[in-house]
Each structure stands twice: as C-alpha cells, then as structure tokens.
Amino acid sequence: QVQLVESGGGLVQAGGSLRLSCAASGSIFNINAMGWYRQAPGKERDVVASITAGGSTNYAGSVKGRFTISRDNAKNTVYLQMNSLKPEDTAVYYCNADATVTFPYSRRNYWGQGTQVTVSS
User: What's the CA gap between 58 and 60, in Å, rounded?
Assistant: First the structure.
C-alpha cells in the first residue's frame, strides 16, 4: 500500500506564504496524478490543484495565480506553494495520489491525514 505524509501547515497572517509537502512511500510501482484538496469546517472537500506525472497542472479558480503545485517524481513528493494567503484559504489540506502498487498489483486513490492551514486576518 501507499502512505502519504503531509507537512508544512500552520498559522500565517493574511498575505503570507506557506509551502506544503506530501511524501509518498510504500510498495509503489508508479504514481500517476497527485493533488491537493482542502476542507473547511462545514464544507465539502474540494480540489485545490493537481499535477500529472508529466507535469501538467490544474488549479481551482480561487487559487489560480497564488498557489503553485509541483512534484519531484524521484522522491514521490508533491508540493504546494501558497502565496498571498487569504482567510478564506483556512482549511485542512489533504494530499491525494493516484498510485499503482506492486503487490497485489492494483491502482487506487490514496489520501494523507491532512494538515491544518489557518490564515488570520
């Protein structure tokens, strides 16, 4: 199976920056798309950004121009650079990976445990 461990969350003032990291480990054959989702209290979990194995990216409209997703395939790690943070960015951020494992050979989505991002006004 695959374990996703996120880091980099915290408390920041509006206008500040944070960088989230998510490292995947386990019996990985390959990782296809990776992404970041967020869930604010009382709201659904929504996609923030995603990146394919080849580096193609997509962003939610609310973060376009402020957030940048990237990945290091050699390290099975995905990053989310968040700039110009706003109070409405406050949420638990979850890492997601579409991964294939070696034994038993299978492909599915995996989730990290989440990391809290709080932006104060």
Answer: 7
Tokens of residue 107, six digits: 């492909």
For residue 103, is pLDDT > 90? no
- E strand segments, 40-114: 46-51, 57-59, 67-72, 77-82, 91-102, 105-111
CA atoms within 13 A on the CB side of 38: 21
Structure tokens at 97: 């990976």
Angle at 61 (CA atoms; ends 47, 121), nearest 5 degrees:
90
DSSP 84: S
pLDDT digits (tens, 9 = 90+) for 57-77: 999 999 999 999 999 999 999
